[in-house]
Amino acid sequence: MGSGLMARRTGPAPEHAGGAATTNPFGGGPCLLLGGTLTLGSFGAYRGGRALSDPLTLRLLPGTVLGVVGPNGVGKSSLLGALACSGVQSFGSLRYGDVDLPGMPPRRRASVVSLLPQDLRAPDELRVRELVEIGAHASQHPHAGEAARSALADAGVEDLAQRRYGSLSGGQRQLVQLARVLAQDTPVVIFDEPTSALDLFHQRAVEQTMRRLGNDGKIVIAALHDLSLALNACTQILLLDGGGGSHAGRPAEVLQPELVHAAYGVHTTIHTTPHGRSFLATDDR
Ligand SMILES: Nc1ncnc2c1ncn2[C@@H]1O[C@H](COP(=O)(O)OP(=O)(O)OP(=O)(O)O)[C@@H](O)[C@H]1O
User: Per the record, which residues fall in region Disordered (predicted)?
Assistant: First the structure.
């Protein structure tokens, strides 16, 4: 499976000081599946009239699993919201293939991009099955009922199908909302901290789901606080460093101790298990 990203920090964003232009090309492997490329041209999110980062220029190929990491409040959710065109103001251009994503009619855009937000609110009285079907209907899936059934199984929550949303635990809500996004079945899938409420078993399941979606040729973008998950699940990382700057590239390159310390102020070491899994441990220095 090919995956890749090209990242370029361009000049400073409007109303954002600093940020020398740098170019970080990362060659993607051959793309074996057909699908559009998501292209960010000097793109970024605004909050309160302020650009949250220097402009980002990225080319995400089908199969890319991009982890967006960085300290609290740096602008990960805002960037994801801007990428999903879900009401967060943005600057620059955002194209899927040849199509301007923000300019698409929302109903058509819902067939291209889906979002699992941090805020998991939904009407309490809604049955889980109905909520997941909303995802399938959003992308005008021709077999919404079947898509919902299959997404519930993929998220491992078939047994919750008849429950009222308001009766679910926090982790169950996150898995059900994940199922809603899976039922939407879009080529671009955006997850905002998808494991924040999940136990170890389900964290691993979500990691596997992210990798599977990438292997299916989708573009997956996930804001993550768990840097070990980012190391194992992602093909590429975008680190927002808190000073308006960013670093993009392969996980082990971007999550190296110097860059992590500069962004988070924490010393870390990357370890590898005998089974080849990486984990990032904090050091008491
Ligand atoms: N609705 C909003 N209106 C105005 N400012 C906002 C809004 N939401 C977030 N912000 C501000 O935008 C900045 C970025 O917030 P954002 O939620 O994107 O960060 P984040 O990196 O996702 O944070 P966290 O890791 O804590 O979830 C913060 O300074 C935050 O206070």
Answer: 1-22
What ipTM does this complex have?
0.98
| CA–CA separation, 121 and 98 (whole Å) | 34
Residue 3: closest CA among 42, 41, 38: 38
* Residues constituting the chain: 285
**CB 81 less than 6 A from any atom of ligand 1:** no
Token digits for 58?
A: 């990225």
Q: How many angstroms does the Cα of residue 278 sit away from the middle of ligand 1? A: 29
pLDDT of 174-226, one tens digit each?
999 999 999 999 999 999 999 999 999 999 999 999 999 999 999 999 999 99
Pocket of ligand 1, candidates 46, 47, 116: which has the most ligand atoms within 8 Å of its Cβ, to mutate? 47
